[in-house]
User: What shape does this take?
Amino acid sequence: MTSNAIYGIDVARGSPRSGQVPRYAVAILKDGSVYRHSMLKMHRIFRMIKDDHPMIIAVDNIYELAKDKKELIHFLERLPSGVKLVQVTGGLKQVSLPFLAHKYDISINPRDPGDEAEACARLAEMGVGVEVSLFEDKTKIKVSRARSLGRGGWSQNRYRRKVHGAVKVKSREIESILKEASKERNFNYTSKVVKGFGGYVRCEFTVNARKCDVPIHSSSGSDVQVNVRSLVRDKIQYIPLKSKERKSTIVGVDPGTTVGLSILSLEGDVLHCASYRGISHDEVVKLISEYGKPAIVATDVYPMPAAVEKIRRSFSAVSYSPGGPIPSEEKIELAKPHGYSNDHERDSLSAAISAYKKYRQLFLKIESKSPPYMDIDKIKVEVIKGSSIEEAINSLKEKKQPTKAQKSVAETSDSLSGGIDDETYRKMTEKLKRRDLEIAELQEYVKELIDQRRSRDSTISNLESKIRQMRETERIKLQKEKEISIRNKKIANLKKDIKRLNNRLHDSKAQVKRLKSIKKMESRGEGIPVKVISSFSREAILNVADIYGLKKGDVVYFQDPSGGSASTAGLLADYSPTALIVPAGISYAAKEVFFEKSIPVLEDLEIQKEGDFAVVSPEVLKNAIENWFGKADHWKKEKEEEKLKSLVDEYRSERRRGIT
Assistant: This one.
């Protein structure tokens, strides 16, 4: 089980890319305490990780742990499930560790690996950095033979059958486990089987879930081996952590019954991309707030829909919408590099990326002009809202100006460091007294303001209490009206259902009456049962065969005989019906098939039909069949005469050519 421990790791000596075996400094944040270790080899660190099962392993550069992508994959595969590898300095756009330490008020000596390891751990605890992801949310399970069968001898086939049978049994056992787990954990899977003599050569399952969520583990036996591995991405993906401070974001929204929502950082990193069916406005606002405060709310249509405008107003953000509709090809081009599951996610993601691209050059200009250690995101937000870069920088500088007393102390410190005389010291003392007097006056003023604030807070609290009472009264009233409206609608719907069911009952009674009449005729010998097929199609024939059965000697009636092909006629002829009744003529190709199979096709024969049931008079059917066979003999003689005539004509033609 994953603990709340966070490991910070920094290389102390050597490097994975050098010949010297690297040693590391490790800082462990656990239960509010810091535990430091120095000069540890990697195998020792893995033993500690296995025992502690930490939440995060934080580094300032992932290539201090592995020299290339292959080694990094091996490192991640060795980590226990649920442990995240975090690079605190960022993903593709990295910043230095000292810069981050200064920004978040963490004391650090850049020459001390222990300090750097602790800084990494503390930054990761604050939600700074990105998770390094090399595996997709897909898992491959391969079940195969544990060894080669070889050339073999007299018992080779028996041995092959035994091994392939074992692979088949193991595959079915795994499929049964996956079927149960897919229902509980809501994932799906596909399988691919290569069959062999007596069973399976191998079976591969592709599961749409992370390896840690799949209840199957790699194993090996005498005949069968199971290999479980995560699918590796083409390139490293950096997933930003959820920071504990409210960062500024760019939000793309695709409104509707299913809401598409995409959230980007001001650096253009995708923080979140998903779609939600039936989600309310409040839930959308709450979800967006979890990732920060939106500076821009964007949509892919113009003008901005009312639902998106409502979300924008909730955060007092700047709106963005294109001048016209974005073509689908452009949306795909914008969103495809980041990945999406449906059109809603694609539209919201393309809207957010389009907004980021509009401001990207301005953001780069801000980053180049901003002084070191200033909050660049705040400057970007001020500029987005309409301020110039200089105005935004100056505004933030003023907020961070030191107090008068601090300035005085700083000036005194600077002067003392350079050496002063008595006159200068006297002037400075007087200046300090004046500053102290000003401070005392300001403190009195602050007390007055505090008293005023308390009075106002009391008034506000009373007013808010009254508002809550009024809202509660109004809410109860609206709830009552809503409940009455819902019940009235329900009653109306139930009345409609009763009326509809009464009509169906009346129709059913009439149908039962007619079916009883047909059944009586059949039992008295006044009618022969006929199986009704709605259309001359493969699906309709197979449907009747599945439900009622088609067998030799049945009489079949086509409601719509048009469109029947030779293959469809052949399908019906295979059931060997006694006769086929049609309301009109059928295609020539179908008629030829039935003629060859000696199945009478009877047109315009009077029948009594009710749904999928019908009867025909035995006398009428017998006469029609005899009449058809009489015509069929005549057609056969004509066909034979035509064939004989064709042969004679062909012979004469050959004779003439021979004589000539």
The chain has five domains: 6-128, 137-236, 246-369, 407-502, 528-643. Residues 402-419 have pLDDT under 50 and may be disordered.
